[in-house]
């Protein structure tokens, strides 16, 4: 048996099996369900780390299954796949633990966790997809399995949000599918190749541009590029762990990762640069960055403010991809991870505040730091990281994006980054300030606080602390070989050394 | 491993001890006042090996060059004095841990930026110092400290933005080499040279209290607890100066325009701030204005160096010597305010005033003081100064008169109303730190710049003419102050001066926006609003951008985007020509 062949499949089967088994559980089988969940997440993490470890030692992982004549389903663990895969595996574990604590005692947990696992399977499929059609397959699957998660609460608002979500993502998916089919008809579906399999296809520039427009507009829905971002603030009615997963790993990252694949592995960055599609994409990303930040500034609802912040931060990735040069590539790729760990922390904190104290608005957060110090330390860390304060993760992203922009001769990118950082500061620092330095307006809702007891369940606190620590570690230890930056550097080297 | 690592590490470790639980907090509180001691030892000993910390951040490097050593010496000394003072000053037990947490973090940032050998590490220290110092500014929790904190944070964040842009451009100009030693030359040769210089001036100017970016300073320095005021005005303000000395292309390019602009703003600050300081009612606010005024003179030195590469070396040394002298004097004066408040008895009060008159006279440049040494060095640069209608020498004399005025005002404010509740006088731990700083300042006056870690300037014997030149402005200043008192001149300027104009504008704008929102004058398309109600917002009228958001997220827009985006792509494609 060839381990290189089975490993990628095993990764998908892990979460598929977990999901299917949980479906069959009764609602009251809490322990078994939790055990399954956590086991699945841990096994996944071990598998992914094994792949990364073996990858560095020259083992290649590829699964190829015949699908149609001339069309294979390909799963392959290249550097980019592992960048996204590692993020998903780590954050899945954190989010699973958090979700177990968060949903304690609420109805329909089997349904929830089953779809939760399937959602991770789809995400892993997107990470590992080795050609465009495999990618599209999992991309659409992701839409389908996240829908029940967004609607989970079953309220009118969540139904409305779910509808909005479906309309947006299905339309976007359709465009991506159209682009992929168009390419398949013209040149067949080649494997993702660093440098782009279209670069040597001899397709006319007209065709290339049209396909690029279709693919990127379609992917732009999930990547929340303005004005295709409408579903994202709507989807924040979902339970906190879903929001966390949606905003950090699963859906939005699928879009951003798709853009990464299209630019680097379908077209090839040089071809994309040659046909002049990068600058418009960079401008779209810049507009999104600024508009998202402005919108975030005006929201009082904490989760909604975070949602708009996601709109803005996600486009850092797109901006990095759309700027021609190794440093921008590193910046964009590393932000894929950094944005994930920081944003997941922020949503965990928002969930903690809402669950423990029923605090959902920024204006209700005065003095909350003294009541929930651990939560707010995590929040502060992630918020400062988002602003780009060294030595946290966000600084590393912005440093590379800025240098990359100048390297490419697009100094305006520095202006966009600075403006965005200032806006980030304008919508995050008041939260931090009021939480730590203001007096609480009225007694806290929720259970009375017992001295010596933890401020909230450790099921919720532990993952929050873990991801906040990762956000610190990713910055402080950025120069270490196995840091996110190290992974991104390796992946970017592949893009530019051919 | 180089001892240099201990410099920033010590305060970080103490800060961790302070937050990691009750038992470690006790240890942390015990150690916190002394967190700058390793830095003081390293700086006193002198030469240490550079240290590379390759795993940290983007690969950091620490060093202590002569300039860094000069800054490290006075910074560590004033921070230690402030720490010891604070242990007795911040009396509430539960607030002490909070105070020292921010004390240690700010200190860590301040020390890091001094021993940094690369731009990223410098920025790390600068940012840490900036954000942690917010905790010191708002420590009192009063409405005044909140306002000061808000203004401080807003201006600091803007400065950080300018700074990171400048650093990115500079490092890119150095082909990705972030070493500080490569910065000035790279900036001098950069195509965006003037942009970088402008950004650096703004980015560091806020911290350095340069006109007109000084407005946060008269608010924040006085409302902070007294030991924090001492380090804010003594050390942190100098971090901005050090930033300029590290990054500006001093000696690499003759930037006459920028140099002249700096000299002009520096001189303007030294005169105007002194006058504004004399029109204050609070002792610490007068000191804050005096700091702006004194920083103005250091900025003059930087400006001369920027305009004349030949004078760059001397300008840097002058700035460093001036910074050291001012840090000791201003640190002593701020701590002295606390000592004076705690001295109830009349005789005790007189003794305190006598002690405080030493650093005050030094700032005014009295003969045999550290101030005279610093000002003489500044006068040596006159030959390189840009052409001015009035000679620099004369302007410096006028500035010294102003300094005397503001410090006379300070002494008057400190001298009034001893509090009988404090008849027993200050504890040793309260007056000793101030006394040590005063003594250090006197030593510098007598021994020259050597103790500050700056090479002595050649030949400045105190001849009768030098004696006269340095004492005349003081006599004149005291005379004016006396006459003004006799004539009951009562001019008052609100702390923050020009800020007051802008602030009322901003507040007015904000409240009018709020009022309009309350009236619901931001109308939204009803149909759209009802469709999105509860998804986008709970209060459709409270969001001025919502109308645009709703317009943007219509499905027609998405379809339009596809068309427009494709069109733009084709347009760019055609620009690049050749099918």
Overview of the structural elements:
The complex is a heterodimer of chains A (498) and B (579). Helices cover 73% and strands 3% of the residues of chain A. Chain A has 20 helices and two strands. In chain B, 71% of the residues lie in helices and 1% in strands. Chain B has a two-stranded antiparallel sheet with strand order 1-2. In chain B, helix 1 runs antiparallel to helix 5 and helix 4 packs antiparallel against helix 5. The longest helix of chain B has 31 residues. Chain B is globular and about 85 Å long. At the A-B interface, helix 6, helix 7, helix 12, helix 17 and helix 18 of A face helix 6, helix 7, helix 22 and helix 23 of B.
Strand content of chain B: under 5%
Total helical segments of chain B: 23
- Helical coverage of chain A, percent range: over 70%
Radius of gyration of chain A: 21 Å
Structural class category of chain A: mainly alpha
Spatial order of strands in the largest sheet of chain A: 1-2
**Strand tally of chain A:** 2
Shape of chain B: globular
**Largest interface here, residues on each chain?**
A-B, 72 and 60 residues
Termini of chain B, distance in Å? 60 Å
Task: Give Rg of chain B in angstroms.
Answer: 26 Å
What can be said about the biggest beta sheet of chain B? 2 strands, antiparallel
Oligomer classification: heterodimer
* Count of helical regions of chain A: 20
* Unreliable segments of 5+ consecutive residues of chain B: 518-530
State the helicity of chain B in percent bands: over 70%
List the defining traits of the structure above.
heterodimer; A: 498 residues; mainly alpha; two-stranded antiparallel sheet; B: 579 residues; 23 helices; 71% helix; 1% strand
Would you kindly provide a brief summary of this structure?
The complex is a heterodimer of chains A (498) and B (579). Chain A is mainly α and 498 residues long.
């Amino acid at each position: 048996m060839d381990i290189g062949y089975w490993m990628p499949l095993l990764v998908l089967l892990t979460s598929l099996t977990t999901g299917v088994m949980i479906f069959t559980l009764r609602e009251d089988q809490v322990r078994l369900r939790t055990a399954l969940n956590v086991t699945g997440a841990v096994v996944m993490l071990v598998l992914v780390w094994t792949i990364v470890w073996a990858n560095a030692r020259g083992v290649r992982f590829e699964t190829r299954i015949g699908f149609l004549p001339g069309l294979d389903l390909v799963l392959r663990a290249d550097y980019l796949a592992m960048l996204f895969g590692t993020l998903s595996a780590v954050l899945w574990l954190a989010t699973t633990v958090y979700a177990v604590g968060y949903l304690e005692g609420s109805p329909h947990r089997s349904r929830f966790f089953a779809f939760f696992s399937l959602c991770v399977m789809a995400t892993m499929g997107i990470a590992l997809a080795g050609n465009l059609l495999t990618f599209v397959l999992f991309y659409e699957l992701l839409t389908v399995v996240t829908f029940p998660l967004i609607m989970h609460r079953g309220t009118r608002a969540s139904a409305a949000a779910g509808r909005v979500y479906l309309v947006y993502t299905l339309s976007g998916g359709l465009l991506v599918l159209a682009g992929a089919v168009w390419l398949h008809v013209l040149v067949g579906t080649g494997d993702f190749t660093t440098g782009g399999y279209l670069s040597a296809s001899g397709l006319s520039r007209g065709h290339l541009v049209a396909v690029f427009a279709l693919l990127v507009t379609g992917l732009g829905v999930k990547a929340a590029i303005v004005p295709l971002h409408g579903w994202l603030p709507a989807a924040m009615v979902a339970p906190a762990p879903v929001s966390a997963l949606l905003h950090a790993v699963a859906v939005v990252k699928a879009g951003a990762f798709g853009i990464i694949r299209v630019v680097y592995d379908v077209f090839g960055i040089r071809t994309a640069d040659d046909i002049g599609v990068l600058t418009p994409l960079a401008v779209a990303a810049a507009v999104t960055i600024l508009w998202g930040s402005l919108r975030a500034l005006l929201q009082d609802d904490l989760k909604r403010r975070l949602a708009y912040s996601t709109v803005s931060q996600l486009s850092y990735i797109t901006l990095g991809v759309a700027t021609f040069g190794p440093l921008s590539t590193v910046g964009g790729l590393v932000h894929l991870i950094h944005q994930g760990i920081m944003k997941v922390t922020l949503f965990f904190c928002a969930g903690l505040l809402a669950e423990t104290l029923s605090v959902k608005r920024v204006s209700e957060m005065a003095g909350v730091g003294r009541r929930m110090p651990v939560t707010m330390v995590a929040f502060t860390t992630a918020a400062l990281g988002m602003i780009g304060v060294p030595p946290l993760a966000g600084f590393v992203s912005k440093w590379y994006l800025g240098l990359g922009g100048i390297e490419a001769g697009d100094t305006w990118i520095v202006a966009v980054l600075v403006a965005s950082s200032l806006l980030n500061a304008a919508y995050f620092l008041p939260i931090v300030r009021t939480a730590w330095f203001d007096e609480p307006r009225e007694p806290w809702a929720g259970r009375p606080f017992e001295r010596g007891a933890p401020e909230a369940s450790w099921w919720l606190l532990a993952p929050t602390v873990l991801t906040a620590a990762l956000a610190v570690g990713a910055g402080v230890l950025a120069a270490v070989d196995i840091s996110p930056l190290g992974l991104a550097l390796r992946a970017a080297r592949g893009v530019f050394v051919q | 491993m180089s001892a240099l690592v201990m410099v920033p590490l010590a305060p970080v470790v103490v800060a961790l001890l302070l937050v990691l639980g009750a038992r470690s907090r006790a240890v942390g509180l015990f150690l916190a006042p002394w967190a700058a001691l390793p830095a003081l030892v390293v700086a006193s000993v002198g030469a240490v090996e550079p240290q590379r910390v390759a795993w940290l951040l983007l690969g950091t490097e620490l060093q202590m060059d002569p300039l860094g050593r000069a800054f490290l010496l006075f910074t560590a000394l004033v921070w230690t004095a402030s720490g010891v003072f604070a242990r007795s000053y911040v009396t509430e037990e539960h607030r002490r841990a909070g105070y020292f947490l921010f004390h240690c973090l700010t200190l860590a940032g301040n020390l890091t930026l001094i021993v940094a050998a690369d731009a990223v590490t410098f920025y790390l220290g600068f940012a840490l110092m900036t954000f942690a110092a917010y905790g010191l500014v708002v420590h009192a929790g009063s409405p005044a400290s909140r306002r000061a904190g808000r203004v401080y944070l807003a201006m600091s964040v803007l400065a950080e933005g300018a700074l990171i842009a400048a650093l990115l451009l500079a490092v890119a100009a150095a082909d990705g080499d972030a070493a500080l030693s490569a910065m000035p030359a790279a900036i001098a040769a950069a195509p965006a040279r003037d942009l970088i210089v402008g950004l650096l001036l703004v980015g560091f100017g806020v911290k350095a209290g340069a006109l007109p970016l000084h407005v946060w300073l008269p608010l924040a320095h006085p409302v902070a607890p007294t030991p924090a005021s001492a380090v804010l005005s003594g050390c942190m303000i100098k971090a901005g100066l050090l930033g300029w000395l590290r990054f500006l292309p001093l000696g690499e390019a003759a930037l006459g325009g920028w140099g002249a602009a700096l000299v002009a703003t520096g001189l303007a600050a030294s005169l105007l701030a002194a006058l504004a300081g004399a029109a204050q009612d609070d002792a610490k606010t007068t000191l804050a204005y005096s700091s702006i005024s004194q920083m103005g003179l250091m900025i003059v030195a930087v400006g001369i160096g920027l305009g004349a590469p030949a004078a760059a070396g001397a300008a840097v040394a002058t700035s460093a010597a001036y910074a050291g002298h001012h840090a000791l004097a201003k640190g002593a004066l701020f701590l002295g305010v606390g000592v004076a408040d705690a001295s109830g008895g009349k005789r005790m009060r007189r003794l305190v005033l006598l002690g405080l008159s030493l650093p005050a006279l030094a700032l005014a440049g009295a003969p045999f003081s550290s101030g005279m040494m610093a000002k003489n060095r500044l006068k040596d640069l006159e030959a390189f100064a840009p052409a001015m209608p009035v000679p620099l020498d004369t302007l410096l004399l006028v500035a010294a008169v102003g300094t005397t005025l503001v410090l006379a005002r300070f002494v008057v404010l400190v001298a009034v109303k001893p509090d009988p509740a404090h008849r027993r006088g200050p504890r040793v731990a309260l007056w000793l730190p101030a006394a040590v700083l005063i003594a250090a300042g006197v030593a510098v006056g007598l021994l020259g710049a050597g103790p500050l870690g700056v090479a002595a300037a050649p030949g400045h014997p105190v001849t009768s003419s030098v004696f006269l030149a340095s004492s005349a402005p003081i006599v004149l200043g005291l005379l004016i102050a006396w006459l003004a008192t006799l004539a009951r001149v009562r001019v008052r300027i609100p702390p923050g001066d020009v800020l007051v104009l802008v602030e009322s504008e901003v507040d007015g704008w904000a409240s009018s926006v709020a009022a309009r929102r309350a009236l619901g004058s931001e109308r939204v398309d009803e149909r759209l609003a009802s469709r999105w109600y509860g998804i986008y917002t709970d209060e459709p009228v409270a969001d001025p951008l919502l109308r645009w958001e709703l317009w943007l997220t219509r499905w027609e827009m998405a379809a339009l985007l596809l068309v427009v985006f494709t069109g733009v792509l084709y347009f760019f494609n055609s620009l690049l020509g050749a099918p």
